[in-house]
Amino acid sequence: MEPQTGGNTGEAEVRLELDDIQSGALHERPSPYVGSHLLLRIDDREEGRAFVRRLLPLVDSGRPDLVPAQGAWITVAFTYNGLEALGVPQDSLDSFAPEFREGMAARAEQLGDVGESGPANWEWPLGTDDVHIAIAALSPDAERLAVVLERAHKVFDESPGVELIWQQDCYQLPTGRTSFGFKDGIGQPPIEGTGVAPTNHHERPLKAGEIVLGYPDETGDLPPMPTPDILGRNGTYVVFRKLHTRVAAYRTYLREKAKNREDEALLGAKMVGRWQSGAPLAVSPDHDDAALGADRHHNNDFSYGDDPRGFKCPVGAHARRANPRDALDGEGSVDVRLHRMIRRGTSYGPMLPEGVLDDDGVDRGIMFVFAGAHLKRQFEFVKTQWLNDGIFIGAPAEKDPLVGSADGTGVLTIPERPIRRRLTALPPFVVTRGGEYCFAPGLRALRWLADLDT
């Protein structure tokens, strides 16, 4: 396949080597979808390399496509411990980003994963040295996924020195929304060179080097890249987190704070920044608009510049914190484009039946996956500076009302005329069950890993 250029932005764009980039890192999540996340441990170095070699035929490359060539998109990534277990030379290991080398568990306190969300309470083996390989499979339907997983398990069976130690299945809920009831997957940044057109005419495609290593990023420079070049080029860092959602607590909180059922829906939208249909408050501030929410050409086509005080969408709402768009243009010191990343959220566990306010004890939530070239200034910056802190919005005591590191004392200010409204004593609605920092190499790098002779 020939390298591709992106849409016309009035300037020359880099040509991506799409034949070498794992397509799972770039494709849009299908709807509906089913998938599975698997973690493996390498007990034998030679068998680990042979496993990578056997797995290669299942990994697609090339232009993002709505139909996976193998039946499912397979993405394979490695932790620092996994690359070490494969025998990657130490000078190469030392060339990876410091955050990746440390691992998510070691940086949990900085990320706000403390208390109930701390590594001591994470689901095994997440955050341990046993996690070496992470595989994500995503398909439009269960039948095609089953075929691919059967082939993957055959590879496992042929690799006695590699053990499958954890698996989490995921699928789109019958509502097509998250466990909290909101449409998800909106607002992904367009990446130059992929051929995927922007859904927000206010936003030009992001430089490829913000997501894939080996290309200029938004600063005009090449991001630091692991060595040798064949190992780092066309790879990307991947963050995955298992997040348990306390749906009953969320519903109960809204019920207690709302004046009526209509107000309950409004308060939920104010916390998230969108109505449950996906319609953005910035476009439809007073009522839900299901047609707008379903329209992928318009449900992301907006900005916050005309709403600086947050009367339409609170400045502390989840979606606005995660992507402030043009709301910080006047700040001078913040370039939002340096903190964009690809987000892939998938649901796990059964949905809590509509209207139920009591916790049924079932584990449900979201498998969040982030991809980008800069762990620190993308995922870690957004998590610590925008979601867990309110300084950037002028409210230092306020955290993200939905996913911030809450301790039961959280606050969300909702601007209203004549008097603002405040939600107080926000409990933790999301609990971290674990996560990992990984690196998804290009296909040439996968072959290089399989052929290591150290």
Automatic annotation (TrEMBL):
UniProt-listed PROSITE patterns: DYP_PEROXIDASE
One GO MF term attached to the UniProt entry: peroxidase activity
Taxonomic superkingdom: Bacteria
Matching InterPro entries: Dimeric_a/b-barrel, DyP_N, Dyp_peroxidase
Keyword terms, alphabetized: Iron, Metal-binding, Oxidoreductase, Peroxidase
UniProt cofactor(s): heme b
GO cellular component labels: cytosol
Domain DyP dimeric alpha+beta barrel residues, every copy: 74-158
A Pfam family annotated for this UniProt entry: DyP_N
Family under the similarity heading: Belongs to the DyP-type peroxidase family.
Name this polypeptide is given: Peroxidase
Organism the protein comes from: Leifsonia poae
